[in-house]
Specification:
heterodimer, A: 119 residues, seven-stranded mixed β-sheet, four-stranded antiparallel β-sheet, 47% strand, B: 116 residues, mainly beta, globular
Chain lengths: 119, 116
């Protein structure tokens, strides 16, 4: 089955520790995204990547880092610089958002999420 | 800037209708609608593109007013399964050439509860 896999489902971080959230997709999508969701809030974009070896900061990139070495993988590292990391993290992927073909345009498919808490 | 959704919450009985609105301060390339059930991933419902094209599920309809930079999602004859939080996501114009950023900015969400 094609889809997006996030792991782990639950993650606990100690103070001063870096943790990495995994996101893998087998949909052959070019673009991948990381969002943060706080209780009762919408989704806020952390980083996104439209092609391998390239990525851009979203609205709340401070304290986070990413890499895009392979098309199917887009891991997110929550660094010790992120002082309030407790949130639900969602990874998504889409066909690269260009052109006007609505059948493929930037429809984002989400993983099941990782819930990160601070110990 | 984040699009603004209204209302913040809606409570319905099965079979009733609802409208959820999404308003942006930017010229929009497209509007996307997603539904998220508690603790789960958002699921795609509808995309509306500038110029009038749209694609989505059969039982859900939406409109996109490009001039007003607004979109509305219409839920008719609601079912219990419609309960959840609805998000609009907007993609705005990147440059004068008319291309988009290729990323979405999401509203704060509208909580829809359907009772029997």
């Amino acid at each position: 089955d094609g889809g997006i896999t996030q792991s782990p489902k639950y993650l606990f971080r100690k103070e001063g520790q870096n943790v990495t959230l995994s996101c893998e997709q087998n949909l052959n999508h070019d673009a991948m995204y990381w969002y943060r969701q706080d209780p009762g809030q919408g989704l806020r974009l952390i980083y996104y990547s439209q092609i391998v070896n390239d990525f851009q900061k979203g609205d709340i990139a401070e304290g986070y880092s990413v890499s895009r070495e392979k098309k199917e993988s887009f891991p997110l590292t929550v660094t010790s610089a992120q002082k309030n990391p407790t949130a639900f993290y969602l990874c998504a992927s889409s066909v690269k958002g260009e052109g006007s073909r609505i059948s493929s345009y930037n429809i984002q498919y989400f993983g099941a999420g990782t819930r990160l808490s601070v110990l | 800037q984040q699009p603004v959704q209204s209302p913040q919450a809606v409570i319905l009985r099965e079979g009733e209708d609802a409208v959820i609105n999404c308003s942006s301060s930017k010229a929009l390339y497209s509007v996307h609608w997603y539904r998220q059930k508690h603790g789960e991933a958002p699921v795609f419902l509808m995309i509306l593109l500038k110029g009038g094209e749209q694609k989505g599920h059969d039982k859900i309809s939406a409109s996109f007013n490009e001039k007003k930079q607004q979109s509305s999602l219409y839920l008719t004859a609601s079912q219990l399964s419609y309960s959840g939080t609805y998000f609009c996501g907007t993609d705005s114009f990147h440059n004068a050439g008319g291309t988009s950023y290729g990323k979405l900015t999401f509203g704060q969400g509208t909580i829809l509860t359907v009772h029997p």
